[in-house]
Amino acid sequence: MHVHILGICGTFMGGIAAIAKSLGYNVTGSDRNVYPPMSTQLEELGIALSEGYDTSQFDPKPDMVIIGNAMARGNPAVEYVLDNNLPYTSGPQWLLDHLLKDRWVLAIAGTHGKTTTTSMLTWILESAGLEPGFLIGGVPENFGISARIGNTPYFVIEADEYDSAFFDKRSKFVHYRPRTLVLNNLEFDHADIFEDLNAIKKQFHHLVRTVPANGLILSLAAEPNIESVLEMGCWSEQSFIGKANKASWRAHELKSDCSIFEVFHKNKLCGTVTWSLIGNHNMNNAVMAIAAAHHAGIDIATAIQALSLFKNVKRRMEIKGVVGGITIYDDFAHHPTAIETTVSGLRSKVGNQSIIAIVEPRSNTMRMGVHKSQLSRSWEKADSVHLLEPKNLDWSLQDVVDNSKVQVSTHQTTASIVEQVTAQANPGDHILVMSNGGFERIHERLLEKLGDKYE
Predict the structure, then answer these.
(1) Residue 453 is labelled as binding a ligand
(2) Is 24 annotated as a binding residue?
(3) Under CATH, which number does the domain 318-454 receive?
(4) How far, in Å, CA of 167 to CA of 31, rounded?
(5) What is the pLDDT of residues 287-336, one digit of tens each?
(6) CB 361, CB 367: distance < 8 Å
(7) Which of 41, 51, 132, 200 has the most CB within a 10 Å radius?
(8) Which parts of the sequence belong to the Mur ligase central domain (predicted)?
């Protein structure tokens, strides 16, 4: 069977392609920009790629077209599929029909921490010998790939609330039908898709409705937005994490940066995690992963041991290099809450050493100005901030600058940031780059400039 994927180079659709190939399908695909690393990964799998949306890509005619959610009406390839009555579906629906319907699905949902928690849980199951399948919106360092079908009934998936396709505006995760569901947190985001927070809550409750009565929903004990979702109706077993009385799982940090912490279940100390990650948010993510794995039958001590060998996901506080005693980090943070937790985590690690934060407000929600009132507070634990002003921004960054307690410099170009940060940075400083895009290779350019300065 020949499957053709429109929008194949996104992480999710690239994962679908890899899974389809593993299941024995002949897979081809196209995207607007076909470039490494995803293009390289797909080509190594023997998947033929074409650049752009010329209709010649449908010769030979595929048996099924999987349409990514970035594809819209008016796209030549989409119009060809509709005009010629080719069979088509969304990525999440295809995944359900061809794989998930027969699996024990462990899904991780939430505004923040999905990729990291999914990677932790997958690694725990792998360490326990379960060889799970997985689909992750990033590349976990322990695996080096973002998706595989696995060899057991267990399948771990990052449950994204983005819509499924132009013809299916439900969130992707509604298709996953998990038996184990993690609800990390819930804030307003994706303003290009959702009108308000209640619209997102509605989709999350659709997800809750799909969990069977013998399934388990895990959530933080004091997360008001998640609590309000569950109050709409819940028919499954629930378990809570945190310091509130109703929580059956909790953690206690033994170091302020949360690189060492104890895990308790039903007030019993189960063990201590010593690992390379930092931050309260990652500690909570870890307990979520341990609890989810426990529901799948994994001993708590085994899960704790696995996390000691866990390597973080690429672009999550990833150290890109050290030059002249200056450390450069890359992080995917692009929401004020994520920026705050990332900066706070680094601060807890480096103490009084200088943190230079570089932020690209690149997401659709940021560009629309939805979070501008929160942005100036998100980096308060940094020493200085350099902010790239996106092109065609329909609001002024000046309000953010005026309201910031930390010195903020705005820039029209990435080159300007590289020049100023290179001049500013001193040995012992930490440069934290936060963006959900490529940021014009800013990390490599900083390393090169700093190398010229100090080596």
Answers:
(1) no
(2) no
(3) 3.90.190.20
(4) 19
(5) 999 999 999 999 999 999 999 999 877 677 788 889 989 999 998 776 78
(6) yes
(7) 132
(8) 108-293
342 known member of a binding site: no
Does the annotation place 327 within a ligand binding site?
Answer: no
Of 3.30.200.20, 3.30.365.10, 3.60.15.10, 3.40.50.720, which CATH number belongs to 2-90? Answer: 3.40.50.720
How far is it, in rounded angstroms, from Cα 374 to Cα 107?
29
116 annotated as belonging to a binding site for a ligand: yes
E strands, 293-370, are 318-323, 326-331, 355-359
What residue spans in the chain does CATH classification 3.40.1190.10 cover?
Answer: 99-307
Residues 6+ apart with CB under 8 A from 24: none
- Give the residues of the chain that fall short of pLDDT 50: none
CATH 3.40.50.720 intervals, the chain: 2-90
Q: Cα–Cα distance between 336 and 379 in angstroms, integer? A: 8
Give all strands (DSSP E) within 350-444, no chain letters: 355-359, 384-388, 407-411, 430-434
Residue 113 in marked binding region: yes
Rounded-to-integer distance, Cα 93 and Cα 81, Å: 17
CATH 3.10.20.30 fits 99-307, yes or no: no
Quote the pLDDT of residue 409.
86
